[in-house]
């Protein structure tokens, strides 16, 4: 079964994923741990990797069932068809989410126009071109998918 991208109401990603799971639908909301600071304390919180989006594995015939869960808005479409995510891409998201040890990472200067090989991130034979760099963020164009993704150094 394919994975579809489902848009949710803002800050409802984990709730919608939990509701869909309770309904018997396979839903995945990739998260990352972030330290939030208030005036009196710091706290580690889980925030979604894909804001206002979750991944749903469901058959084509049953796609409308997700709208029974409060907070589900619509599916994301690409070229007139519902956008599908491959199992390899979902596994790559899970690997990023589960990767706790980042000691072996190196930082290099990134310039617009630089080609980046994304196969190490789990994308199958996918190259990206850096379009724009701003501070610690850079935008990479995935030519094969027609997407621009924002990455943080």
UniProtKB/TrEMBL annotation:
Entry superkingdom: Bacteria
PANTHER family in alphabetical order: KOW MOTIF FAMILY PROTEIN, EXPRESSED (PTHR30265:SF4), RHO-INTERACTING TRANSCRIPTION TERMINATION FACTOR NUSG (PTHR30265)
Pfam families, per the entry: NusG
Organism: Arenibacter nanhaiticus
Alphabetic keyword roster: Transcription, Transcription antitermination, Transcription regulation
Keyword Transcription recorded: yes
Domain NusG-like N-terminal: from-to ranges: 1-97
Name of the protein: Transcription antitermination factor NusG
UniProt GO BP: DNA-templated transcription elongation; transcription antitermination
């Amino acid at each position: 079964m394919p994975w579809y991208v489902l848009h949710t109401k803002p800050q409802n990603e984990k709730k919608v994923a939990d509701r869909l799971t309770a309904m018997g639908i396979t839903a995945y909301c990739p998260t990352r741990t972030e330290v939030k600071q208030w005036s009196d304390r710091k706290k580690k919180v889980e925030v979604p990797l894909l804001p206002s989006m979750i991944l749903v594995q469901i058959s084509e015939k049953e796609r409308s069932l997700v709208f029974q869960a409060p907070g589900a808005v619509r599916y994301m479409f690409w070229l007139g068809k519902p956008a599908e995510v491959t199992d390899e891409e979902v596994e790559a998201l899970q690997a990023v989410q589960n990767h706790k040890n980042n000691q072996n990472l190196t930082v290099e200067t990134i310039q617009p126009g630089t080609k980046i090989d994304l196969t190490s991130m789990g994308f199958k034979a996918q190259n990206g071109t850096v379009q724009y760099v701003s501070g610690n963020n850079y935008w990479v164009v995935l030519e094969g998918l027609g997407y621009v993704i924002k990455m943080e150094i």
